[in-house]
From TrEMBL:
Superkingdom: Bacteria
Protein name: Alkaline phosphatase family protein
Pfam families: PhoD (PF09423)
Domain PhoD-like phosphatase metallophosphatase: 51-293
Species name: Flagellimonas lutimaris
UniProt xrefs under InterPro entries: Metallo-depent_PP-like, PhoD-like_MPP, PhoD-like_sf
Length: 344
């Protein structure tokens, strides 16, 4: 009996020690990504946006507006200014703005005209309102040149990310209506038609040729690779698509990724380009406050995965050592809706 009690005491002591050891074991710490980009488009300031707290929780190094920051659709400058001002009154967005750098571009609804382009009557005035909203200083060179395009570099100890923000509105040629099908527009046959305009094309070429960044993000408000749906897309200007792809390949720029919005859906598109050592991805993230819930399908020969037709935002985390970009579409509370990892 004495031996039994001795055995029982030893067992109890062993169990207590084991529990103590288990309690003191460290929980593995999730590695911190080298750099985080968050972006999105299609945002109505008067509608609830459920994502600002989630985006802030991502601890992004930068937030990129992909266009349609607000829905104004007006040639009244003061009305346009007032609608932008509404976005600045959104409390959760203000928290993000206070902690995270905000950059980006416009699309048609914040430009001021649905599907609008170079012939919009107040594009000069609209540009200044946009720059005011983005907090661009009055003495910035961006105040004195046409278009809202810009580039931004972010360097951390592990590497560098460059964000090239395009303007697909100010210079864009007229769209060709498709009278022969149910599609809205069709590709133009005009060899002089343009998306970016001569000055912006030259600027983009310089930005890519001179870039020493590990990753180069090109923010286009409209999709580049998905060009078969008949809505607004670079595909309506096929020669411009070829020009962009050739420019990317010939520049030697590392880790080029296209970001886009506009469509009220989110999807990944990917293609291989001659002379480019990695696939070109177009990550579409749209929209923040409203989306194409009735989406029932459309062609996209470059699509990877499925279309996400619910509201979402985009996040990309970069690992410089692995040369990897982890791209995620996310919903409320940071739920991952779809993911694509790409090595460069």
């Amino acid at each position: 009996m004495k031996q039994f009690y001795l055995f029982l005491a030893t067992l109890i002591l062993f169990s207590a020690c084991k529990k103590k050891i288990e309690k003191t074991q460290e929980v593995p710490v999730k590695p911190t990504p080298d750099f985080v980009v968050a972006f999105g488009s299609c945002n109505m300031s008067q509608e609830p946006n459920p994502f600002w707290d989630d985006i802030l929780a991502e601890s992004p190094d930068v937030w990129i507006w992909g266009g349609d920051i607000v829905y104004a659709d007006t040639d009244d400058v003061e009305k346009l200014r007032a609608i932008y001002a509404m976005q600045d009154t959104v409390a959760e967005y203000a928290k993000l703005r206070a902690e995270v750098p905000i950059i980006g571009t416009w699309d048609d609804h914040d430009f001021g005209l649905n599907d609008g382009g170079s012939d919009f009557s107040i594009k000069e005035e609209s540009q200044q309102v946009f720059l005011d909203f983005m907090g661009i200083p009055e003495d910035s060179e961006r105040r004195n040149r046409e278009g809202v395009y810009a580039s931004h570099e972010y360097e951390v100890p592990a590497g560098k990310v460059k964000v090239i923000v395009l303007d697909t509105r100010y210079f864009r040629s007229e769209l060709v209506k498709d009278e022969g099908s149910k599609k809205r527009y069709k590709p133009t046959t005009d060899s002089t038609a343009t998306v970016l305009g001569e000055a912006q094309w030259q600027w983009l070429e310089n930005e890519l040729n001179q870039s020493d960044a590990d990753f180069n993000l090109i923010m286009s408000s409209i999709q580049v690779l998905s060009g078969e749906h008949g809505f607004e897309t670079w595909g309506n200007f096929p020669l411009e698509v070829d020009k962009l792809e050739n420019l990317i390949a010939q520049s030697g720029a590392k880790g080029v990724i296209i970001l886009s919005g506009d469509r009220h859906i989110s999807e990944f598109s990917k293609t291989n380009i001659d002379g480019l050592s990695y696939p070109l991805v177009d990550f579409t993230s749209s929209g923040l406050t409203h989306s194409y819930f009735s989406f029932s399908g459309e062609p996209n020969q470059h699509r990877i995965g499925e279309v996400v037709s619910e509201k979402s935002y985009g996040v990309i985390t970069f690992d410089f050592e692995k040369k990897e970009a982890d791209m995620k579409m996310k919903g409320d509370n940071g739920v991952v809706l779809q993911e694509l990892k790409q090595t460069y």
